[in-house]
Specification:
Mean pLDDT: 91
Oligomer: single chain
Number of helices: 4
Radius of gyration: 46 Å
Order of helices and strands: EEEHEEEHHEEEEEHEEE
Largest sheet: 9 strands, antiparallel
Helix content: 10-25%
Low-confidence stretches: none
């Protein structure tokens, strides 16, 4: 147990203030301290060892019959002689809790009465809150519509296709690599980043630890006219640096070779296109130093919104594109970045993409 500190109380009968906590009766009017008592401190005055030795460390108990407090060492009420027992003898802390509950109940009743006085407690929602809720509702509606998508009736204005072939030429060009191929003509070399190596090394690391720095002092009401001094260790965070062995990624340079050598390189693109369903690849007549490279093909349609007359170009797969003709009516679900072509039942025929 920590040191004991002297407490004080106020008499509610004669308004005597700062009465020594050791006194059970008010020196002004002689009344015993009752349920209104709440001990408090006036500075820090420690009890002597002899005074502290007389204390049990337990709170006073309250007599339900004469409404006065008694020391824990007494089994009968000093004022009326009633015995302390199961039905009589709530301690000081229990009485303080009951008082707090009663005060909270009274505060709640006052709040309800004030609400009734103000018209049942109904208040208009602030204008800024109404606006905020409307904006949030708009955002939610927009998000839902964006996810579900909006169906639009459109007409196919035109169709088009394009097929391309990259032409590669066998040329004597500058290249680079980490090795010099046989027969290549070296132009220059350069030390450049190649990869990372993992190296264990000593690294200075900032760390922290909790270091005790004195005590935080608080005082606990014992409920018998004294307070116990509680000393809780106080810790501060201390930062320090320490070397640790850690893996570190170290960049490694190696020699890169720049050289002249023969290679197939992209030279040009041959393209065929049209606005009908008769697609074909461009005809090629290539000399020996040229060859076909990568091929690509796109199939597009332009649709017109039946309401706004706005036109939009979409790319789609070849099979679906082959089934469409200028003048056809189509239904398109417009979604955020993911438009879809629908059939008469609303099922998805194809995913559309704008070029």
């Amino acid at each position: 147990m920590g040191k004991l500190v002297k407490g004080y109380w106020d008499c509610q009968y004669c308004s005597e203030k700062g009465i020594d906590g050791e006194l059970r009766e008010c020196p002004g009017c002689g009344k015993a301290r009752d349920e209104s008592v709440k001990f408090y401190m006036k500075g820090v005055t420690y009890l002597s060892q002899e005074e502290a030795a007389k204390k049990t460390g337990r709170p006073d108990w309250f007599c339900e019959y004469c409404h006065s407090y008694n020391p824990d060492s007494s089994d009968v009420c000093v004022s009326c002689g009633a015995p302390r027992g199961a039905d009589n003898g709530k301690n000081y802390h229990e009485m303080q809790q009951i008082k707090a509950q009663k005060e909270a109940q009274k505060a709640a009743e006052r709040a309800e009465a004030q609400k009734a006085y103000n018209g049942g407690g109904k208040k208009k929602m602030p204008l800024f809150l109404v606006i905020l809720l409307l904006v949030l509702a708009g955002i939610i509606i927009f998000s839902v519509v964006s996810c579900i998508g909006k169906k639009k009736d459109m007409t196919v204005s035109s169709i088009s296709w394009e097929k391309s072939i990259e032409i590669e030429k066998y040329s004597y060009v500058e290249q680079s690599g980490w090795e010099l191929p046989p027969g290549a003509e070296l132009v220059r070399t350069k030390e450049e980043f190649h990869h990372y190596d993992t190296v264990m090394t000593e690294v200075l690391v900032e760390k922290s630890r909790e270091v005790q720095n004195g005590y935080d002092v608080s005082y606990e009401d014992n409920g018998d006219g004294t307070f116990e001094e509680i000393q809780t260790p106080h810790y501060d965070t201390e930062y320090y640096e320490e070397y640790e062995t850690r893996p570190v990624q170290v960049p490694v340079d190696e020699t890169k070779y720049y050289y002249m050598a023969w290679a197939w390189v992209e030279d040009r693109t041959e393209t065929a296109s049209g606005n009908d369903h008769n697609t074909y690849w461009p005809t090629l007549e290539l000399p020996e130093d040229e060859r076909e490279g990568r091929k690509s093909e796109t199939y597009s349609m332009v649709v017109r919104d039946d309401k706004s007359s706005k036109e939009t170009k979409y790319e789609l797969d070849e099979n679906t594109w082959q089934s469409l003709n200028p003048g056809d009516g189509v239904t398109i679900r417009v979604k955020s970045g993911n438009d879809q072509l629908l059939d008469a039942n609303g099922d998805i025929i194809a995913e559309l993409r704008e070029p």
